[in-house]
Amino acid sequence: DTGVSQDPRHKITKRGQNVTFRCDPISEHNRLYWYRQTLGQGPEFLTYFQNEAQLEKSRLLSDRFSAERPKGSFSTLEIQRTEQGDSAMYLCASSLEVRDTSYNEQFFGPGTRLTVL
Amino acid sequence: QKEVEQNSGPLSVPEGAIASLNCTYSDRGSQSFFWYRQYSGKSPELIMFIYSNGDKEDGRFTAQLNKASQYVSLLIRDSQPSDSATYLCAVGGGSYIPTFGRGTSLIVHP
């Protein structure tokens, strides 16, 4: 396994369309995170999964956003009725969480750059 | 709300000099601290992490943590033009979801 992969790398869509992104984490990692990053800003947390359970979702996350991680492997992030403000880099990261430790070393995928016209 | 503050820069240093990058955080319960390097158009890459007060060294990089002052820094010795990038500070609390700063742009000029 060479790392976290994301597909597609680039997506251009028209306002109002739905888009779906995929993330394949490092195989032994049990946590998977989605972030959004805009120019000049750090990654902004969207949601994360522990195995197949979605444990936390940012309060900033619109109802148009939904994420799944069936079977605790890959994850998808769907944005419905896209808006121009959704244009950003969507980053996926994974980590191996060990009980009773503070470890949270995240490894990022290459990202999916979304442009909404 | 947990906040992580970084000077956006750019910080410009000559090749061979020491680059010093700083980060402050608001949540006193934070337990884990990370430095990521991000080249333009690329995703963040973890370069250092630290959990305990004091210094941690890895090659040309040294992370310094002072929990009492809620301050973490990254020193890059013998800076190279290839070190030119944005450096993101991330701070993890009890929930282990790191909060990222906006990053500091570093330029190392020959």
SSE succession of chain B = EEEEEEEEEEE
How much β-strand is present in the residues of chain A? over 45%
**Contiguous uncertain segments of 5+ residues of chain A:** none
Distance between the termini of chain B: 41 Å
Q: Quick check: average pLDDT of chain A?
A: 91
User: Count of DSSP helices of chain A?
Assistant: 0
Residue share in β-strands of chain B: over 45%
The oligomeric state of the chains shown is heterodimer
Task: Give the helix/strand class of chain A.
Answer: mainly beta
Helical/strand content category of chain B: mainly beta
Shape annotation of chain A: globular
Strand/helix succession of chain A: EEEEEEEEEEE
Shape of chain B: globular
Instruction: Tell me the greatest interface.
Output: A-B, 23 and 25 residues
| C-alpha-based Rg of chain A, rounded | 14 Å
- Helix amount of chain A: under 10%
List keywords for this structure.
heterodimer; A: 117 residues; mainly beta; 7-stranded mixed beta sheet; 4-stranded antiparallel beta sheet; 0% helix; globular; B: 110 residues; 6-stranded mixed beta sheet; 5-stranded antiparallel beta sheet
